[in-house]
Amino acid sequence: MEYAEMNQEIGRVVSENILSRDKAALEYVMSSPDGRWFVSRLLKNCHVYSALGLIRADQSMVLDANAMMVQEGERRVGLILRQNILNIPDGASLMYQMEQEARAHDAQLAELRRSVMEKYRE
Q: How far apart are CA 34 and CA 20, in angstroms?
């Protein structure tokens, strides 16, 4: 019985240590604009904010079961990261700030696209 209790205690101590380091690392990353940019791009690449499936050049969707399974695995990673961020102190406000910064950047990219398109219309 003592051996089982020792293993449980080891598991608990190790888990708490890893959780503490994970939280500290996420707080560090999310405290800077560059860190929030990286996390935002990672969540986007993990399909956290989009439908699963392959998108053709004409923007139509192809439902490929194998591709969707891969994307679902990627989404799972993104959802775990998102939840871990929400669990840190001020996580919700940091997520909101990150999303606002991402929207502002998307607006800048849209403006860049428009300016390039206007150049070619002339």
A: 22
Beta bridge partners of 54: 62
User: Looking only at Cα atoms, what is the longest distance across the chain?
Assistant: 82
In this structure, are residues 15 and 7 in contact, taking their beta carbons and an 8 Å threshold?
no
> From the CB of residue 68, how many other CB atoms can be counted at a distance below 10 Å?
17
Q: Are 86 and 28 in contact (CB under 8 A)?
A: no
User: What are the Cα distances from residue 71, in Å, to 9, 43, 51?
Assistant: 37, 12, 10
pLDDT in tens, 64-81: 778 788 889 999 999 999
Give the number of residues written for the chain: 122
- Whether 33 and 104 have beta carbons less than 8 Å apart is answered as no
| Cβ atoms of 82 and 42 closer than 8 Å | no
pTM score of the predicted model? 0.77
Residue with tokens 């050049």: 57
Given a cut of 90, whether residue 49 has pLDDT beyond it is: no
